[in-house]
Amino acid sequence: MNHPSRLSLALAALVAVLVVATPAVASAAVAEYQVQYSPVGTTGNSQMIVNVILSDDTPLPAVVEVPIPAGAQVLWAGEIFGGDPALDPARETSVTPVAGGQLVTFTLSEVRIAQVEADLARATIDGSGVSATMSWTNTGESAPVLASIRLPANVGDVTIQPQPIGQPQFNDVGESLYTLPVRQIANGDVYEATVSYRTGIAAEAGGSSVLLVVVGVLLVLAIVTLVVLVRRDRSRRVGSGLDG
After folding, report:
1. Residues in Cβ contact with 48 at an 8 Å cutoff, skipping those fewer than 6 apart
2. Is 11 inside a domain boundary?
3. Termini Cα distance of the chain
4. Dihedral over Cα of 158, 164, 166, 167: its sign
5. Per residue in 5-33, pLDDT tens?
6. Are residues 218 and 163 in the same domain?
7. Domain residue limits at 77
8. Are 214 and 147 members of one domain?
9. Within a domain: 78
10. 198-211 tens-digit pLDDT
């Protein structure tokens, strides 16, 4: 499988850990989930990236189960080294429907970070307005969830609930990442967030800038014309002996 949607904007700072593989396949202990939601992804649909971070004492290889929403289509699954995405190895998976969603199961052999990228249903688009709801059900172990919303470049009037933490981060293509509050999510519980925004803000701003430049030029020309007229009027007054 390809690695279609990972960009330089990451879910969170991921630290690769040095491990020594053991012959037996261990059971995984989840230390943390990371969920990143894009209302409009690379395919035009909404997309979700789910990372499962295993505890440091989990021996490798280990079988990991990554929860994704019901109906989601897996685009890529594998291990995350935290560097060049092209070096992240894809893994063969099995997808099992469960109450509240699906579990994507595969084996980690090199690092304790699993990632699944999935295609979801399309967001609601009305003209330049986009609105969507992120809904992720934890069908695995109870663990803290670090959630975030990734938006495309050139958007404005952004509204996200729950309220993001701090200011958004931007990557080199102008996408923004809004970090949501960390929540402890038990098995069967749902992390939900809503987002809405308008597209084409940069284009509108660009049009406004052009208009301002035109207005500025016209204002300068008007001032220059006024100065010339005043000078000409003063010249006539001096010539006719009317100035002072």
Report:
1. 35, 36, 37, 38, 68, 69, 72, 117, 118, 120, 134, 136
2. no
3. 89
4. negative
5. 554 345 543 333 323 333 455 556 999 99
6. no
7. 21-199
8. no
9. yes
10. 999 863 333 344 34
